[in-house]
Specification:
- This protein is of the alpha/beta class.
- It contains twelve helices and ten strands.
- Helix 6 packs across helix 7 and helix 10 runs antiparallel to helix 11.
- The protein starts with 5 loop residues before the first strand and ends in a 10-residue tail after the last helix.
- It binds acetoacetyl-coenzyme A (CAA).
- Acetoacetyl-coenzyme A (CAA) binds next to helix 2, strand 6 and helix 5.
Amino acid sequence: MAYENILVDENGHVGIITLNRPDVLNALNSALIEELSDAIEKFENNDTIGCVVLKGSDKAFAAGADIKEMQPKTYMGAYKEDYFTRTWERVADCRKPVIAAVAGYALGGGCELALMCDFIIAAENAKFGQPEITLAVMPGIGGTQRLTRLVGKSKAMEMCLTGRMMDAEEAERSGLVSRVVSLEDLHDETLKAANKICDFSHPIVMLTKETINRAYETTLAEGIRFERRMFHSMFATADQKEGMLAFIEKRKAQFKHR
Ligand code: CAA
């Protein structure tokens, strides 16, 4: 697939996807989402890639779903195409870690896309918001659910009912982002985190991601049971033997990703 709305690059074992519709602040249209979904699929199937970084520009991660594309939609059309479900959730379904590097606006579907990633590193100029209410709709790409789980009912209600944006500092305080860095450092800091993840055993990283995500889907007792079984399974990997032996022998581990 030729990409016209995203840029795709690799840095060592890190796959980098840059949303690239600068004229419309990376508004997410269906062509962009098809391309994003394709790029995620390719990185997921590429054994040399251990982690993916998703970013936008310095001004906007993404200012939401493309309002011009969305405005004429009908109920039956949206229902039949299963709008937002088919391709948009591909990022959330990625089995490898995906880090969002957010600078500038992350609004509506842009905020929801960032929330589909495993964690968000934000630049100081980042602004998060769910302004759909101003368009007479509500968040429809997971915002009412993922945002509420992260920041709690009160802040999620306020953001979705008033459209108020959160700055980076409030987003970090509220648990929406893992940390805030300067705009100049955003790219390097995100790559550093991604490269660190890639240095670890890829299957162990994937199992860890899957296990943490289970926390959102189940009761504590079931989640703990799942964690315990996944933990036990790690003793079947060559990397566990190597990781612990390397510690005992006081040397750097050489993971084989199996
Ligand atoms: N869709 C389509 N085009 C968009 C867009 C969007 N979500 N956001 C910005 N653009 C376009 C603008 O129309 C404008 O294009 P033109 O130059 O052709 O007029 C261009 O990007 C630049 O935008 P502005 O001139 O508005 O830039 P600004 O700096 O003055 O304001 C902004 C920036 C505050 C982000 C403003 O653009 C804005 O409010 N955008 C819309 C945000 C929004 O409502 N997002 C939610 C969309 S709904 C959604 O995402 C669906 C869902 O969950 C269900």
